[in-house]
Amino acid sequence: MPKVTVQTILAKKAAGQKITMLTAHDFPTARIVDEAGVDMVLVGDSLAMVVQGHENTIPVTMDQMVYHAGMAKRGIRNALLVGDMPFLSYQTGPEQAVLNAGRFLKEAGCEAVKLEGGINIAGQIKALVMADIPVIAHLGLTPQSVHRMGGYKVQGREECAAARLIEEARAVEEAGAFAVVLEAVPMELAKKITGALSIPTIGIGAGPHCDGQVLVLYDVIGMFERFLPKFAKRYANLQEEALKAVLAYKDEVEKGTFPSEEQSFR
Ligand code: KIV
Question: Are residues 254 and 226 in the same domain?
C-alpha cells in the first residue's frame, strides 16, 4: 500500500472514494489501524477519556498528546498521522497554534493537525497553513465546548444553526483546511455541507453521505465500557475477552496449574 498523504485524501474525494479514519493513542493500536489500511490515524484528544479516564477531553495536555502521538508514529507505515490540538493549545491565537502544532510535526512526526472550531479559529487555520502545517477542522459537536453546549448534543437541528454550520464549513475551507470533521449533525445537513465543499467531510455521527468516517478505536473494539455513543458501532468486545483471559490466569495461578512444565526451564 502506498503512503497516504494529504494529496491522497483530496484525490479520494475527487474520485468519489470513501475516506477512513480511526483514533489510535499508542504503538500497538496504531499498528493495527495502519495494518488494516485505514487512511488516517488520529491521535485524538479522546485520549483524555478513553485512556486517561477523565470525564471529558478538557484535561489532556499538549505534552501528553505529543508523547502519545510519538508512540502512534512508531506503529505506522502508510497512514497519515494527525495530531489533535488539545484544549487551550490554540484558542489564544495564531502564534500559540503554530508553536503547538509545530510540536506535533517536529517531536512526534505527525503530518497534519486537527482543531475544533470554525469562524472563531479561521485565523489560526490560516497561520498553520502559512507555516505548511496541514489542517483538519472540526465542526458540529465540538467536545472541548462541552460546558458552552451544556452536554454532548446533536448540533445544527434548528434552521438558523444549520445555516450557521454551512457558513462555518465554508469559512474553514476558505481558511485553508484540507478536510473537516463533522460531529453529531443531522445527516441531511452533513450531505448538504459535503456537496457544498471541495474539501472532504469526515463524519462521526453525521450519517452516510460524508466523504469519509471516523470513530474512536476503543468504541470500535470494545475497550471503553463507560458508554457507547448512538453513532458508534462496536465490532468486537476486547474488554470482555481480556477479562476472561485475566480471570483464567488468576484461576490457574491460584490452583497451581500455571506455570506448567511447558513454561518452565530445566
Ligand atoms: O478526539 C477524538 O478522538 C476526535 C474524533 C473522534 C473525531 O476528535
Answer: no
